[in-house]
Amino acid sequence: MSNTLTLALSKGRIFEETLPLLRAAGIAVLEDPETSRKLILTTNQPHLRVVLVRASDVPTYVAHGGADLGVAGRDVLHEQALAQGGAHGLYQPLDLQIARCRMSVATRADFDYAGAVKQGSRLRVATKYTEIARQHFADKGVHVDLIKLYGSMELAPLTGLADAIVDLVSTGGTLRANKLVEVERIMDISSRLVVNQAALKLKRALLRPLIDAFAAAAGQAPTP
Ligand code: PRT
Ligand code: MG
Questions:
Q1: Is 169 in contact with 101 (CB distance < 8 Å)?
Q2: Using one digit for the tens of pLDDT, what is the confidence trace for 154-187?
Q3: Which residues does ligand 1 sit against, CB inside 6 Å?
Q4: How do beta strands 5-9 and 69-73 pair?
Q5: Can you tell me the distance from the alpha carbon of 149 to that of 161, in angstroms, rounded to the nearest whole number?
Q6: What are the tens digits of pLDDT across the range 181-215?
Q7: Is 161:126 a contact under the CB 8 Å cutoff?
């Protein structure tokens, strides 16, 4: 659809934190994903619709043209770029500074992480972010056995599955509730606008004003 733009968002914090940016651009989403089961949401702009996808599917939708643009966390973008050996062919014009958190290493409070690293011990690390974790520990010269999990990383050190986890932390409440401590910060995370490269050329007249509106709403200078 050359006269329509499709924006991919994930339900939850990215949707909630993108809404004010859209609102600042005069765009209202006409359905609430928490109460509607629809996956395609209309907006007050006839040429713009929103599709709801899993957070880790946003880059795929945008790269393959299922959506023209989307909002994705740096965690997801960086993990997938490493897995694909670098480029994923997405234009990333803006850091929207939303859904902010950090990616950290955490362990049980009674685990001597610094001591284990110093002694050159082999660590068992559970995470959903195996590529980022692999690179982080390789850079530190720490040997790790990575255990891929898809959810509730916090449980792994408590059950003896792993010595440490690599996960996202925002308030720290989840770690505290499970008696885990943050022992190392790997990177700061926020969400980026990602744009399909072909759409950028073919739908420039529709996309450019929307990207500029996102930039203004996020308090950033428009990109060239
Ligand atoms: O939930 P689902 O499995 O469908 O997918 P998802 O977890 O990938 O999506 P979602 O909506 O939970 O997260 C989307 C994006 O939000 C992530 O890719 C991050 O870029 C960003 N984000 C920001 C976060 C957090 N903050 C965050 N705190 N994503 C997850 N968390 C989790 C974290 O994994 C941990 O379990 O919240 C818990 C820690 O929070 P605190 O506040 O207790 O420290
Ligand atoms: Mg989640």
A1: yes
A2: 999 999 999 999 999 999 999 999 999 999 999 9
A3: 10, 12-14, 54-56, 73, 75-76, 99, 101, 167-174, 189, 191
A4: parallel
A5: 11
A6: 999 999 999 999 999 999 999 999 999 999 999 99
A7: yes
Contact 151, 82 (CB under 8 A): no
- Nearest-atom index, ligand 1, CA of 150: 3
For residue 62 the two structure tokens come to: 């945008």
The alpha carbon of 71 and the centre of ligand 2 are apart by a number of angstroms equal to 15
Are 46 and 205 in contact by the 8 Å Cβ rule? The answer is: no
Residue entry with tokens 């500029």: 212
Which residue do the tokens 């859209």 mark?
Answer: 22
